[in-house]
Design a protein that fits this description.
- Helix 5 runs antiparallel to helix 6.
- This protein has one domain.
- By secondary structure, it is mostly helical.
- It is globular, with a radius of gyration of 18 Å.
- It is built from 10 helices and no strands.
- Keywords: Membrane, Transmembrane, Transmembrane helix.
Length: 219
């Protein structure tokens, strides 16, 4: 196994660790943080299935067409709790429904099941970057500090993870299909090594958010 393949495989283990951790402490989390655990459990299962298909030498890109709208909706549920009273829930519902519809149409007619859904991931990244930047602005409001009393540090870790991952990987999302089709498989794997590193950073931030909340619950 080459170094790049080893890194790509090994990068799944921190994700699976955070997934299992979220399951273990789920009952101790406050209700506002539980949507993050739902996100980790759902995406963790899909990443595990993706790794299994990779070992079986089976195209795992169809899972990406499921992962993208699923994680977008679950992250909106996370932000719905964080931004309650700041952004009307109906706006997030419209965003979720609109993106799922777009993603479905994209999969059916533009970027089919067995291709890289770069367009949907690009739109997802832009929307989540805007949402995370808006959250940073709201966090400067003292009323937000009061609203998030008891778990503001967790929110900061969540928002930082989302912002860092989707901002840093936006270029990869946009050019992903081009790289898969036109550059060598070895060079393509290096780009996915970078993506895996960014993904692990986001999951580390999410783990810190859960750990921070679990630590507070024991005080």
């Amino acid at each position: 196994m080459s170094v790049t393949k080893f890194i790509l495989v090994f990068s799944h283990f921190p994700i699976l660790f955070v997934t299992i951790y979220s399951m273990v402490i789920y009952t101790r989390l406050r209700k506002e943080i539980k949507p993050l655990a739902w996100y980790l459990m759902a995406t963790g299962i899909l990443y595990a299935l993706s790794l299994l298909l990779w070992f079986l030498r089976t195209n795992n890109l169809p899972l990406l067409h499921v992962l993208v709208p699923l994680r977008f909706v679950l992250l909106l549920v996370v932000y719905k709790e964080i931004l309650r009273g700041y952004i009307p829930s109906w706006i997030l519902y419209v965003l979720a429904g609109g993106f799922c519809l777009y993603s479905f149409i994209n999969t059916l007619f533009i970027e089919r099941w067995y291709t890289f859904n770069a367009k949907a991931m690009t739109v997802e990244s832009v929307l989540l970057i805007i949402l995370s930047m808006s959250t940073y602005i709201f966090l400067m409001d003292k009323r937000m500090t009061k609203h998030l009393n008891g778990y503001i540090k967790s929110v900061e870790w969540i928002n930082s993870g989302v912002f860092l991952y989707f901002t840093s990987s936006l270029t990869l999302m946009y050019f992903g299909d081009y790289m898969i089709q036109l550059i060598s498989s070895e060079l393509s794997r290096y780009t996915w090594v970078v993506h895996s590193f960014l993904l692990v950073i986001m999951y580390y931030c999410f783990w810190r958010a859960l750990w921070k909340q679990d630590t507070i619950s024991h005080l």
